[in-house]
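TEACHING EXERCISE
Course module: macromolecular assemblies
Task: Read the component lines below, then compare them to the predicted structure of the full complex.
Student: A.B.
Group: 4
Components provided:
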Amino acid sequence: MNALPRAAELGLIGCHVCGLVCRDAHATAGAAEVVACPRCGVALHRRKPASYSRTWALLIAAFIMYIPANVVPIMRTASLNDIDDNTIISGVVELWKNGSPDLAIIVFTASIVVPMLKFLALGTLLVSSRRGSSWARQQRAGLYRLVELVGYWSMLDVFVVSLLTALVRFSVLSRVEPLPGVIFFGLTVVLTMLASMSFDPRLIWDGRDTDD
Amino acid sequence: MGTTSEALIVCEHCDTVYQRLALARGEVARCARCGKVLQRHYRLSANAMLALIVTAMIVFVQANMWPIVMLGLSGQHNSSTLWGVIIAMWREDAGVVSVLVAATLFFLPLLKMLQLGWLLWFARQGRRAPGFVPMMVGLHYLNPWTMSEVFVLGALVAIVKAHAYFDVTPEPGIYAYAALTVLITVFAGIDLRRLWLTPGDAA
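Instructor-supplied answer key:
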């Protein structure tokens, strides 16, 4: 049907770790047997195992973490006469007001836009691939590459809070302390990264008849 | 072909099968179906990559030994190294974050550079290093978890935030980190899977 043959149709598997192209021995091997890559020894899979359920589980867990990450303050600034708790968004607003709108936009992108993009993009990919949709396949493939590329930049705010905690410690005059929001946010980033790793982009191109 | 083939490539993102090409300088092969990069031209020899890794290691040591930023407030001064950051987060009951920072900015980058250095040291002699297979598999899995470049941007944001209330002096560590980011960017474009090819070809 297409001039571009796919490995699964030819009975081949590309090893996901070392890239070696191997003949798919799953048919001749016993059901319980693990077929390993002869070059690197990692188990070969036609598709990432249980990609849909794993990705959904991690994505939902990440979203649950993302709610307290935004509602609970991530950082406390304490000085002689006042205590100021900042959430992610109030930190962005403060940065904007203090005269660095460009950096405020970067932090906003890393902390708000990128996680939201990951939830929406992976959700869309999961639903459309499950339905075997042929809608905008190339764009969806590009969307997945984008998610993979920008994913880890969300750690930005976690590093900012950590640095300020270490630096701003002037006994009673001024102190910065991390608050639980930053832990939730760190976990959100890790979980979304795991979610995008467990999604198999080959599912975008698989028709209605193939499944994991 | 037998049961495996080094002459073929399968696109990781859509499963399309291609013949491996000999690319000219600067050329990049993309998948015709999904657009994912399949192959890049080997711009750097194993020797040049080893030189880059050794440079990165030296810069990494400096980036971790030297303080990153110094803050001043009415005569008092405070500065911190990366380990100062990790310890501060641990003491402030943010153990999860402390472990995340230690892993993504110290242990995993260190492990990555040591393993690459080891593998390339042997690759330049056209040999496979002892422990080649487990190290290559390990590198594949730890690759997405090194975040030094994000930390540089984070330091910049922290400086700007602190600037409103404190006297901020950048310390040598921040420059070492900036240099490390440049080296990481150079390295990011290199496909290390070439080391799997028959030893000798890779050098």
